[in-house]
Amino acid sequence: MYQFDIAATDKPALYREMEQALDALVTGEPDAIANMANAAALLWEYLPDLNWAGFYRNVRDELVLGPFQGKAACIRIPFGKGVCGAAAATRATQRVEDVHAFPGHIACDAASASELVVPIVHDGRLIGVLDLDSPTPGRFDAEDQAGCERLVARLAPALAGALAA
Ligand code: SME
Q: What are the structural domains of the chain?
């Protein structure tokens, strides 16, 4: 069991503390699935107001469900489809305040109202995406985006080994 003392009251500090915890979890561990699983657990425990937190992996240019917390979800998402597929196709973070207004949004969980999807790129290769869903419209702001992009930057090299597609 890992015990982290994360007590930040402002978002930038929260993400800095989560980054330190993530670093402790993945340092020295080459197994990508284990590292995604612990990262999903960390996000789920410390980010308030989420209904889904997890990963889709790039498996031969298709997104395939990876470790996550939340309700059982869609297993395969083509590049370009929905919010996750848009992040994979463009390799740009998608921060969506109202998923119902996003063309092609895939409703895995009817409770989702807003979504943040960060592509995971390492050495020029798309490894997958981090997907966070919230039941609150506009849940994710620029600080969440910057914080999650930093977490993904720390995680990416720890996912590169075992997931080579
Ligand atoms: N809503 C996502 C699909 C993944 S689930 O939210 C877990 C999308 O449109 O890409």
A: 11-160 (3.30.450.40)
